[in-house]
């Protein structure tokens, strides 16, 4: 491969995506997660020059859960980031110089998944570590007499996990906050041998083809990240889930701590909006605290009646685009949330309802921009309507609704970082899901003006036309809720920031 730019890296990475036919077959097979995935991942690690125990140097914090994983990880990273500055620590104490954050999925750029000190890798750094990982895998394949093509490399997420660990090892990262992809027990991130602490965010029903149909089955998978060397902290869960998590903790063995809403956070203005983030922040505080104790940054656990100033600053300064985020432009307020499960879509609906001023009458324009391509889209749409209708005391939630695919632009298609092959291209082109969503919404609320668009670009333009931004005839500020998919939100931000709609 002659050229080694960031664009080349993204193009090569996209060749490792699993196509829709294979993903769909796995979903329909009922076989669940690959029980050989961890031994396979260990072998991939060895092919790029690492034993899993080597990653002990990263002082990893491992996070699993159904919802809130990204926000909780961001809170932890932001709080620990405050300890990088000499003014906050005693001179004789070692500083946290480099803090890694590995999350998924990304919004606009794949390099967002691998961060150091709360900044995505630069394009140059991403390309360098990408091709170092790529080349090591090809060299190992040749040494074993295997063809050095894509069959000698793991899939998309596994590759990025390998690359993240390689990046953090090469950069001398002091702490690596690592978010699971799917589940925990068989997730590719779970080659970590000795994390300092593990955390489990709120559980719900998601990825049922791989994790099971009950909260007990899902809790079993998430509990697989527990390690004997590390305490585990969990957000409040249904009793059945707690029972499973406690059993897993006893088997490891380790100590399981259930973290309720921290009253010390009530007066803290979190950098992430929405009241439910107090739950994620409470869990993050407990995890960050335990991590600092494990590293010797604190002599003992802090008192429960005070938050360190570093924690408060970190909680206030955290930024996590696409989660309960509001962006404003002329006459319009875009309310953006990547909620894509039943639980998270209800949370997004409650947050949006809380943003509607009491004086706003039902005559004011409110628009829904929605898509979900792979889950039960109609169930999500119904849950969103039900949540908003209840919060607004049966007032019509939206005057307008537009359903589109995750295609970024009408002419250019997907930008490379947002390319996804694990949904049906044929169904997307025919707008099958979108037409189904439109019919579902008309059935729920016949008064809503409903539209279907192929691309996010066209959907955004339609919203602006409805709002009368171009004509300047919009009365007051038109509110738009963009939700249903992280991929939709990423494409939406790309459209909005490039000004192509």
UniProtKB/TrEMBL annotation:
**Residues the record lists as binding ATP:** 323, 337
Q: What is its main location?
A: cytoplasm
**Span of the signal peptide:** none
Reactions catalysed, as given in the entry: (6S)-5,6,7,8-tetrahydrofolyl-(gamma-L-Glu)(n) + L-glutamate + ATP = (6S)-5,6,7,8-tetrahydrofolyl-(gamma-L-Glu)(n+1) + ADP + phosphate + H(+)
Concerning InterPro entries, the annotation shows: Folylpolyglutamate_synth (IPR001645), Folylpolyglutamate_synth_euk (IPR023600), Mur-like_cat_sf (IPR036565), Mur_ligase_C_dom_sf (IPR036615)
**Where do the annotations place Mg(2+) binding?**
104, 179, 207
GO CC aspect terms: cytosol; mitochondrial inner membrane; mitochondrial matrix
Query: Which biological process terms from the Gene Ontology are attached to this UniProt entry?
Result: one-carbon metabolic process
Location of the protein in the cell: Cytoplasm; Mitochondrion inner membrane; Mitochondrion matrix
State the Gene Ontology terms under molecular function.
Answer: ATP binding; metal ion binding; tetrahydrofolylpolyglutamate synthase activity
Per the UniProt entry, the Enzyme Commission number(s) are: 6.3.2.17
Reported cofactor(s): a monovalent cation
The UniProt note on the cofactor reads as follows: A monovalent cation.
The main enzyme category here is ligase
The UniProt keyword set, sorted, is: ATP-binding, Cytoplasm, Ligase, Magnesium, Membrane, Metal-binding, Mitochondrion, Mitochondrion inner membrane, Nucleotide-binding, One-carbon metabolism
Could you tell me which pathway this protein works in?
A: Cofactor biosynthesis; tetrahydrofolylpolyglutamate biosynthesis
Per the entry, what this protein does is: Catalyzes conversion of folates to polyglutamate derivatives allowing concentration of folate compounds in the cell and the intracellular retention of these cofactors, which are important substrates for most of the folate-dependent enzymes that are involved in one-carbon transfer reactions involved in purine, pyrimidine and amino acid synthesis.
The entry assigns this protein to a family as follows: Belongs to the folylpolyglutamate synthase family.
Any idea what this protein is called? Folylpolyglutamate synthase
The organism of origin for this protein: Letharia columbiana
């Amino acid at each position: 491969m002659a050229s080694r730019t960031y664009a080349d890296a993204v193009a090569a990475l996209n060749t490792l995506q699993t196509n829709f036919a294979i993903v769909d077959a796995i979903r329909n097979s009922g076989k669940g997660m690959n029980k050989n995935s961890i031994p396979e991942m260990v072998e991939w690690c060895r092919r790029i020059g690492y034993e899993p125990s080597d990653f002990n140097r990263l002082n990893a914090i491992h996070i699993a859960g159904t919802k809130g994983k990204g926000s909780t990880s961001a809170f932890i990273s932001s709080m620990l980031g405050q300890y990088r500055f000499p003014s906050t620590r005693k001179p004789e104490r070692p500083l946290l110089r480099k803090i890694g954050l590995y999350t998924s999925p990304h919004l606009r750029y794949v390099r967002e998944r691998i961060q150091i000190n709360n900044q995505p890798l630069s394009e140059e750094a991403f390309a360098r570590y990408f091709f170092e990982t790529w080349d090591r895998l090809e060299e190992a394949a040749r040494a074993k007499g295997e063809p050095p093509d894509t069959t000698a490399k793991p899939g998309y997420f596994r590759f990025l996990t390998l690359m993240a660990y390689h990046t953090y090892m090469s950069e001398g990262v002091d702490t690596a906050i690592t978010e699971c992809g799917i589940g925990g027990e068989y997730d590719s991130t779970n080659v970590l041998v000795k994390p300092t602490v593990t955390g489990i965010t709120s559980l719900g029903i998601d990825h049922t083809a791989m994790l099971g149909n009950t909260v007990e089955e899902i809790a079993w998978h998430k509990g697989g990240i527990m390690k004997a060397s590390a305490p585990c902290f969990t957000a409040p869960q249904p009793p059945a889930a707690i029972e499973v998590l406690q059993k897993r903790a006893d088997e490891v063995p380790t100590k399981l701590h259930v973290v309720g809403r921290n009253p010390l956070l009530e007066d803290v203005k979190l950098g992430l909006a929405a009241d439910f983030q107090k739950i994620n922040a409470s869990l993050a505080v407990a995890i960050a605290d335990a991590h600092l104790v494990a590293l010797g940054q604190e002599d003992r656990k802090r008192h429960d009646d005070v938050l360190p100033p570093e924690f408060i600053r970190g909680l206030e300064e955290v930024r996590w685009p696409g989660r309960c985020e509001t962006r404003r432009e002329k006459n319009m307020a875009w309310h953006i949330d990547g909620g894509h499960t039943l639980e998270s879509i209800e949370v997004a609906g409650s947050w949006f309802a809380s943003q509607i001023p009491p004086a706003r009458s039902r005559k004011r324009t409110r628009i829904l921009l929605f898509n979900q391509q792979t889950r039960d889209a109609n169930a999500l749409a119904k849950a969103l309507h039900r949540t908003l209708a209840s919060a607004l005391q049966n007032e019509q939630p939206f005057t307008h609704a537009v359903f589109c695919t995750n295609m970024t632009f009408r002419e250019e298609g997907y930008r490379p970082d947002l390319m996804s092959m694990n949904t049906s291209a044929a169904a997307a082109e025919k707008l099958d899901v979108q037409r189904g969503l439109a019919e579902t919404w008309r059935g729920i609320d016949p008064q809503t003006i409903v539209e279907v668009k192929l691309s996010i670009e066209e959907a955004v333009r339609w919203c602006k036309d409805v709002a009368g931004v171009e004509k300047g005839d919009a009365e007051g500020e038109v509110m738009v809720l963009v939700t249903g998919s992280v991929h939709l939100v990423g494409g939406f931000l790309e459209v909005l920031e490039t000004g192509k709609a």
